[in-house]
Amino acid sequence: MVPISAYLIVAVALFGIGVLGVMISRNIIIMMMSVELMLNSANLVLIAFSRVLNVVDGHAIVFLVLTIAAAEAAVGLAMVILLYRNRDTINIDRFNILKW
Amino acid sequence: MNLDLIIFVVSAIVAIFGASMMIFQRNPIASVLFLILSLVAQAVLYIQLSALFMGAMLIIVYSGAILVLFLFVIMMLNLRASEDLGAPSSPISKTVKYLISFLMFVELVFIFKGGTGLDSAAVGIMSTPPDNFGSIEQIAELLFTRYLYPFELTSILLLAAIVGAVIIARRDSVEDAPTATETNEQQAIDEVQN
Q1: Integer Cα distance of B60 and B63 in angstroms
Q2: How far, in Å, CA of B114 to CA of B137, rounded?
Q3: pLDDT band for position B2 (50/70/90)?
């Protein structure tokens, strides 16, 4: 049997990769996908703990998180389309109107 | 080596490989496909943790719906790998970014190792789950009893997301065009003036 700490280390590694992706990526779509990856690593932790504690609550929370991820992706991508229409690029460094 | 361990190691490596390829791709479409690979491997991990329904949901909802939405947007904007993303950032800032994310990884490993007492036998070793653990029946029962309010609130969230996405992404020309009532008023004013 694989111990739970192995699953947790996989989840943490995925979270770290997501953080790195948000920081090094110039492409706003890849940044959004990195955020989705971080949400998923949190889901993996919830699933692993609900397996260890033998309660299904974690699964119900993951279900709600999936809904939130879908809503976030829909609104975020609508904003990406609007940004692309206004600035003609998806380079995150070009979206600096609000920069002081 | 037993089968459980082999499945775990393979799918963990595939999940991490797909995720790291995802952030280093220049072509956004390849990036989406690598994320789908990573998610399928994560679904295998879910199923190994007896979360059969949630594993299926991950594949259907995430790979099947959310990432296809990403693909639609990338294809609609007609993005290419040659998209000009500016000069590469300086080596110093790159090193700092790698260092921050690595430190975050180490820190989280320490927290999980130290804070939860995972090495103790009672928590670290998984017992066999009860019958139909993680079945649709059990999850639905929880969703409609203990998590009823969050569940109902997601309907409002989804409605807000639909309306918000449509309003954000619609063209400005729709906004500028006179609405039906305005045209009627204009006609009425014209008639009076005549």
Answers
A1: 6
A2: 35
A3: confident
